Structures are given as structure tokens and as C-alpha cells.
Amino acid sequence: MHDFINLWETRSQRLMKALGSQDYEDADVVLLSIRSSSTMLGAWPLEAIAGMVHSAVKDADLPRSMSHLARLHEVGANTCRELVLLVQTPSAAPTM
After folding, report:
1. How far is CA 12 from the centre of its chain?
2. How far apart, in whole angstroms, are the C-alpha atoms of residue 75 and residue 73?
3. CA-to-CA distance for 19 and 60, rounded, in angstroms?
4. CA-CA distance, 47 to 53, in Å (whole number)?
5. pLDDT one-digit tens code per residue, 20-65
6. How many whole angstroms separate alpha carbon 8 and alpha carbon 34?
7. pLDDT single digits (tens) 1-31
8. Residue 91 host element (H or E)
């Protein structure tokens, strides 16, 4: 969780840069990273939106890729906020 939170901004910026320069190969790498880490965390809404962007990137469809970015950033930021709360909440002691 810590890695996901700490890397979100860097991944987000790298994706924007890749799409801005139409570097679909780098965008593919970033989106695979976002999707796999989202899956591992159970962040299904983020994985789904990243999947839509990824599908557009695979088709080299810049307008379609860009059309999902605002939602990707919004859901990514919300996911990070939720993860921060989980990290900060002390876990309950197991009862026997």
C-alpha cells in the first residue's frame, strides 16, 4: 500500500508525459503497472478505468486515451486517500 501511494503521482505524471509525446510504449508500461498494482490491492474501479485507457493506448487512439484521464486521476487520488486511511488505522488485535 505504501508503494502504491508513494508511486501514484510519479506514475500519473509519467503517463501524462507519455501520452503528451504519443509514446504509446511508455504509456503501456505505466498502465500495466497501475493495473497490476490496483488488482493486487483490490482497487477494482481504478483497475477498470486504467483498463479503458490501456485499451485505447493499445489502439494508439490518443483522443480516447485522453477522454478517460480525468476520471483515472480522480479515482487514483481517491484510492490513495482511502489507502492512507487504512495504513493509519491501527489494526484490531485478534480475539481468542
Report:
1. 7
2. 6
3. 10
4. 10
5. 999 999 999 999 999 999 999 999 999 999 999 999 999 999 999 9
6. 8
7. 889 999 999 999 999 999 999 999 999 999 9
8. none
User: Hunting for cell 486504467 — which residue is that?
Assistant: 50
* CA angle in degrees (0–180, nearest 5) for 68-70-74: 115
What are the b/e assignments for 75-88, b being 16+ CB within 10 Å?
Answer: bbeebbeebeeeee
Amino acid at 61: D
Residue type present at position 84: V
Q: Which of 13, 16, 5 is nearest to 53 (CA)?
A: 16
Give whole-number Cα distances, 87 to 1, 81, 90, 94, in Å.
8, 10, 8, 17
Instruction: List the grid coordinates of 88.
Output: 493509519
d(CA 72, CA 55): 13
